[in-house]
Known about the structure:
The protein folds into 2 domains: 18-381, Alpha-Beta Barrel (TIM Barrel), CATH 3.20.20; 388-494, Golgi alpha-mannosidase II (Immunoglobulin-like, Sandwich).
Amino acid sequence: AYGQNMVTLTPSEKPIPISRHIYGHFAEHLGRCVYDGFYVGEGNKNIPHTNGVRNDVIAALKELQIPNLRWPGGCFADTYHWKDGIGPKASRPAIVNNWWGGVTEDNSFGTHDFLDMCELLGTEPYLAGNVGSGEVQELADWVQYVNFAGNSPMSDLRRENGRDKPWNVKFWGVGNESWGCGGNMTAEYYSDIYRKYSTFMADWSNTGGLYRIASGANSADYHWTETLMKQLPKSLVKGIALHHYAVIDWNKKGSSITYTDEQYFKTMKSAWFMNELVEKHSAIMDKYDAKKDVALVVDEWGGWYEVEPNTNPGFLYQQNTMRDAMIAGMTLNIFNNHADRVKMANLAQTINVLQAVILTKEEKMIKTPTFHVLEMYKVHHDANLIPLRISSQDFVWNGEAIPAVSASASQDKNGRTHISLVNIDPKSSQDVTVALSKAQKLQSARLLTSANLRDYNDFDAGDRIVPKAFKGAKVDKQQLTAKLPPFSVLVVTLD
Ligand code: AHR
């Protein structure tokens, strides 16, 4: 039992930055994420775009200030040969997207398209390299193509394709899910492969040193993390990944909208498991890296349900209700609270796939409840974590309990305090007391909730679910009190 809803802020002497890269996103060549999501083609006459990228999407993602974008996969990354996606579009080869729906991929959205789009979005690219079916030389060439400023075979080819200056891509994944779709490797074998591939990924330019990220564990595969921490030379690795989805049962994932109360509890339980995962993987990393130089990079997370009826099962298109807002609020609180080790994360996936922040239908676009949580939490980007202690009431189902309330807090560069509080209990409101470390004044309070847990923003109903000013939070000297409605996310700002 977790007890009363009491949060105590315990500011630390030493600053612990919450990296904005925890708020990263993910765009795979999967279903309608890239094609029909981001990219509608240069020739599109119906949807306003810039170089084929939807203008409404650009504006929405700028509003979120997305810090990084991972591409081109996912499982797709280990089948992707980047040279297929450069040069004149008419002569690019078509391939089959084996993992996702068996559709034909015409490679019209390639390296230039993606990296130029990142510039438009003001976000840092995170390229996932192919180590499953690609050669060492191919990945080494990709790094040279995008990052080398001088004359070389690859940078000259880049210039021939219209781009003079390198893009200076810092974040590089060395394979994806190498224990599964990325090659079904053992941790020991992958460690050797990693050492080899990463050696030839040269530090060409002023990226400040490549940030190489090793393909990480599947949820609770602690042996994977332990082996990589033992085997990978620190000079060649900046991050070790982790993938965990909030899923009820891989064989019976349930609807994204008409879930039962039991399915709601199970989703929350799986999302809350992230806390244990982060702590246990971090404890292993601590044994080999007490100084926390290597980051835990949760580069795939989010809710995963059945696809919407009458959509391609390989496209992973699902709706996004208040349940997803609960996953997002709780998970980001977990990441913030472990910001000393979790320095990067990527929600899967940005548009029209899994727990998307944006859904599109022809010329229409909607922002999901998840979008609004990320928008509310952007106050935490690059702020300093204020560690906290929390005791929460239980959210109970059938004798099982998880905490109903989660929280995280930070102080931004202007000295303002931001506290995000989430109540996942679908039925009961929660009275929360936050003990502050000094007398403060309430500056603003914004709440995201809705009339019903299963509500979502739809193409016909528009933005029904949006954050609203909240009157139920009060500050009296060193104490904040708030009555959190059922299934709600609250962000308060204090001066
Ligand atoms: O995000 C969808 C898929 O989930 C990714 O391609 C893969 O890495 C993971 O299994």
